[in-house]
Amino acid sequence: MGRRSPLTRAHRPATGAHRQVHLNDKVKSVSGPVVLATDASVGRDRVASGYLATTGHTGLRAHIYPRYLVHAHSRVVVTELRAVYCGLKVVLAAHPGRPVEVRVDNLQALRHLHDWQRGGMDMPAGYDTHLRSQGRKPSLFQLQLFAEYTPGLTFVHEKAHVGHPLNEAADSLAKLGLRCVRGTVPRTELPRLVPLWASGALADYQRSLAA
What we know:
α4 (165-182) packs antiparallel against α5. β2 (34-42) and β3 form a beta hairpin. The chain contains five helices and six strands. It has a single domain (18-210), classed as Ribonuclease H-like superfamily/Ribonuclease H (Nucleotidyltransferase, domain 5, 2-Layer Sandwich), CATH 3.30.420. By secondary structure, it is an alpha/beta fold.
């Protein structure tokens, strides 16, 4: 992408790590089919996910993820799938019934999504399937239901780091979340940086369609 990430301009001192950060936002949409791009960023004991849709919905989530829960490979796949869940949850609620193309750059996560569409129920190795607080179903169980029972969902592979605006934005948002929980980007910067980056990426995406 020609546009530089605002992260390169966000030089801030370390501000202390956080256990978790979470932000959803809405910027100006792009006309045409609904496309949702998602991505994840995984550290030694922290994980983060980001998403951006042509509907203007965007967000990130990052939190501590102890290494003993699942091995490193599964932690990446789980976080990639959680990024899909976070984005789909918002987009489907705002635009029920509209077809949605979800672009994923992790092939193992994509295989799970396609399997779930066919009625499969296998989860990534080591994924904790117990109910969460207040009796909530695990997020990947909810994503499995989305995949199997939502008409019009399409899951496609998006090759990473080749300049696709939506994918690059999702990647940048995930990395921003990871930096925030590590304490190298202030939490107070998220409400400024997330819509700034999302708006710029959607503008680049719209220009790419017109080219």
